[in-house]
Structure prediction request, 56 residues.
Amino acid sequence: MAKGPEKNTNNKALHAKLLKRKKAKLQEEKKEKALRLKALVAKMNQKKSSNESDVS
Prediction:
């Protein structure tokens, strides 16, 4: 058996849990940002096409 103090696995498990939560949050924010950007691009394209049809 190894000598020395026992390892503190509780802190390691908590740290892993927090990092996983942080990573999931960042990924969710990235998806939401992409969806907002996609909606904005679609809106601008629609506005642009309606303006072109009004001019013609």
